[in-house]
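Why predict the complex rather than its parts? Because the way molecules touch one another can change local conformation, and only a joint prediction can capture that. The input here totals 917 residues.
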Amino acid sequence: MSIDGEPGDADETAAPVDAVALAIAGHPIPVESFGDFRTAARDLIVRRIPPESVQWSGTQHAGGDLLSAANTGLVPALPADLLDQPPAPPPRIPRALMEMLQGAACYRAPDRWGFLYKVLWRWQLGQQEILSMADEDGARLQHMVKAVRHEEHDMHAYLRFRERPPEAGDPRFVAWFEPAHDVLPQVAQHFARRMGKISWMIGTPDATVAWDGSTLHATGPLMRSAADVEDSGEALWLTYYRSIFNPARLNAGTMHGHIRSRFWKNLPEAAVVPHMVSQAAAGARKVGQLDTVGKRTGTTIPIAPEKAAPERQQPSSLDDCRRCDLWQNATQAVAGQGVHHAKIMLVGEQPGDQEDLAGKPFVGPAGALLDKAMDEAAMDRRKIYITNAVKHFKWEPRGKRRLHKTPAQKEVMACHYWLETELETVKPEVLVALGSTALKSILQSGSVTMKDHIGKPFRHEGRWVVVTYHPSYALRVPSAEARHEAVAAIVAALKLAQRLADGETPE
Amino acid sequence: MELIDKLEILADAAKYDASCASSGAPKRSSEGKDGIGATNGMGICHSYTPDGRCVSLLKILLTNFCIYDCQYCVNRRTSNVPRARFTVDEVVKLTVDFYLRNYIDGLFLSSGIIQSADYTMEQLVAIARELREVHQFRGYIHLKTIPDADPALIDAAGRYADRLSVNIELPTQDSVQRLAPEKNVHTIKLAMGNIRLKLDEKEAEPKAPKFAPAGQSTQMIVGADASDDQRILTTAETLYGSYKLKRVYYSAFSPIPQSPKSVPLAPPPMLREHRLYQADFLLRSYGFQVNELLPTSGNLALDIDPKLAWALANREHFPMDLNRAEPAMIARIPGIGLRNAKRIVELRRMRQVRYADLARLKCSMKKIAPFIVTADYRPARDTTPSDALRRSMADVQQQQMPLWPELQAA
Ligand code: SF4
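Output of the joint prediction:
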């Protein structure tokens, strides 16, 4: 962004100030707003007038710098031929710096404009460390920006509106606040967003702003102190404030650390604090309850314990399984799904992240791939049974995600009990082992390897077993080609399983 | 009963829930519109009470009648407390009135279980609906979800609320069974899982109806059972990973009037709760894992913060050269926060980092000194034993009182 930006909120009607002429004459440059400053600073910089040679004067509450060091007449003289030189090009100011300057300009300090000009000057000299906290001026700049932001935040937080009686007309709500920096304009925007079409007014010692429901109006000071309005809503607030406090945790230091003391005098709740603290310190501290609540008579609820428990679906026995520890970190056990007397049963490894939440096998990305493979093999998901060797999701935290972890052999063995139950009810003729965990579970052996069995169907306990990759293996392999092959192998295995289920025998 | 009396009882009963934040909602504004309320994503604390905690939301119970008998809870059915119940309109009116006076940023509504989980949840949803649809309230709404309620009701809650929470309350299934007999870890997990699925769906399909844009959170009570910090943090880590929680809140158990024998008579040290929050922050934002902070079972140290404790236990990483170290490792140095770690990395792109830079960045020099090397500084205490360093850097000389001496002896 160039320094010749929008004129900002400068007073357009005022006669333009010739900052360069004033500086040469040794006069202070009057600045009322950031827009004024920006215009003046641009003219001074293109004329290469160093910060030591400029005096600034600001608005009264800026601290009125009549007595500040810059005004003691010790301004270094400017070179006589200054105006003969061609002007320098206006510096390019990055948006971030411009925003910082604009923020810092709200900071009430007698030398604020002079300091901001020094920052600009150093920037155009190429001193980028002006943006770093480790630079002395940079630290001050950031400190000013932060203090202004802090003040804005405090005003958002600790300003209290009082409601005026409806017959008094607009504004319906009034507030009084004493900000330490010039933050009223931006804070007014905040309340305009918050209050919709409801009218309000905020008074401060040096300015007032009012919202009529659609437009903001800024004027000079209208109020002298906190709004003198009776508001019955305040009693409710004080009750809430006292009741939400937990005497057992008394820690007034933290409270004082957060709300700076200058805000207390205008905060309605501040009036009840001393009493709350002394009561808490004098005994109520034993329990968390407010004294006045504790003194009321209470009731117990007459209901028999057995009637109190909600009616829930009984957890399945699988949900109650404690044969290994995997239940502990999983959401739920995921049982197999499918028709009862399916001829084909697909056995995967274990539920994944999505399956664990949904309670259904093969619904995540691996499930989608399996669906596609089944489509290709013309296998109807509604005619088969799909399950996993292990019924609870085993995982490890990785930051905020769950990283799938292969179940250990002892978990596979423990969970085989459930696969066995499913085999007994479904009585499939063909088992498709998707991956090595499934194969190990089916054969109940930790030492079998996939490559001995892949593509070679064999008989086990009276049924055919077809071995192929797990769909998530196909998702994991890096090359497109290997992935293609893996999917083709799965499709082939599914086709083979169907032929075996139809009574064909492998050649 | 007058509104003000109900407020006294039902705010008093709500203060044991630690969640308070009002951040994470999408930006909303009422400028020039009917209705009221704005959110800017950040949330504000509007006041602080003498317990040092902030007030940012109107935090109340719809009612403190409750048919459950959770031992740690002041509202359990066997508790002899004054009872009250707001009407839907009363909660709505209080929220709007408080909001207009700038006391609060929104509503945090919870409730005892009355009649049934579904009935209670319906009432909570009715209040949120009335605020949003009738009053066009655009402030923040956080609803406590009743885990046993019908998932359809939880869906509805997510349409009106910015945040949903389901409290796990205790870190182990055994403790829940013992201290909250009507609750059930299984249904709590299912409710959280259901909320996460809905959040995932919304994320994958931006045009789907909105659902709890500020996410979900939970709370664990500390010191009501014998679980140690390692157990608590491991549970938290599990919950963060499983349900993508925005926050796990830790609430130090507060002694309650006529406390049942099943829970302790004294609160745990408040500092313990504080250390858990510090550790939780290290888990969420610094990439620490629980087994780094607490490799064996036990509690976090009370005399020093968990990051300093980690550094003292892992001296092989130190002193760390700020001009060379991995950015992620710089943030692991005690006394350097995430922001300063970033600033240091930015600065060293321009020039060498020097000792005085750190003071200007307002690093805690006392903490950082033994752990860093800069262009012009090497710690003299590099070889000082960790024990001695720890004594010199302790926050407060405070001994942890065993809460459950008999269990620890066993
Ligand atoms: S993984 Fe299997 S054996 Fe282990 S707890 Fe779950 S159902 Fe039981």
